[in-house]
Known about the structure:
Layout: E1 2-5, H1 13-26, E2 31-35, H2 42-50, E3 54-56, E4 65-69, H3 76-84, E5 87-91, H4 95-107, E6 112-116, H5 122-128, E7 136-138, H6 146-149, E8 154-159, H7 165-178, E9 181-185, H8 190-205, E10 208-212, H9 218-230, E11 234-237, E12 253-258, H10 264-277
Parallel strand pairs: 1-12, 2-3, 2-4, 4-5, 6-7, 6-8, 8-9, 10-11, 10-12
Helix pairs in contact: 8-9
Amino acid sequence: MKINIAKSSGFCFGVKRAIDLSKDLADGEKAVYVLGDIVHNSFVVRELEEKGIKKIQRIRPAKNAILIIRAHGAPQVTFDKASASGYKIEDATCPMVKDIYKIAQKLEKDHKIIIIGDNNHDEVKGIAGQLKKKPITIESPRDISREKLGHIKKAAVVTQSTQTIENINNIMQRLVKIIPDVELYDTTCRTTKVKQEEINSLPKENDLILIIGSKTSANTKRLYQISKSINDKTHWIECAKNLKPIWFKNIKKVGIMAGASTPDYITKEIVKQLRNIAP
Length: 279
């Protein structure tokens, strides 16, 4: 059985930066905390916890402690509360996400800000929480109606960094019919675009596709959705234990794509297991 691993498979720059920063801080003398998951991958989170980095769900007063802002970013109120509570803040927000903050902040002076993204995702909450005025978040074309948006005369649209090009285009096609002056600022990150380009061809070139990543990962979810729409023999797994030998009966070529938060060693373990299933 031939195994084809996508060239863009695995960590993106922002994830690697956040993990490296966290590991460096774990070697220091101060207590280190992270608000939520540093990235959306349970194996990475567990590895950092083993190094002494403690995950917290709410900010409490602390002394001589560091709080890491995760790669997805956070609302400004989180930064303010952490500083007031005694933490030294280490910001691991992906630089691409910070660019979205800057664009949206500049444009909100004379535009209504619309975010194309998952309403409950940490990154989207972070973008919205960096603005003075509450933006509108749109997940899909189904969220758009003239009743909700007809009063808007001028809008700027930014995108969650892991959005699909198809979803963005479908939403914009509807927005331009309702809002007289609406402009898209495509803030989907380059790595996301490269991964999506590959996952549009990988399912056509292989009999079966494995998408590797945690179920909480937005970018992995989109890779799975794209692949599944092209090749029904697409499986979303988190690690080698999820592999089922029956999937590979009469399969000659397997394509693999790991999400942007998935460590390379997870992919290597899966490949090793595949060799045992079908040498």
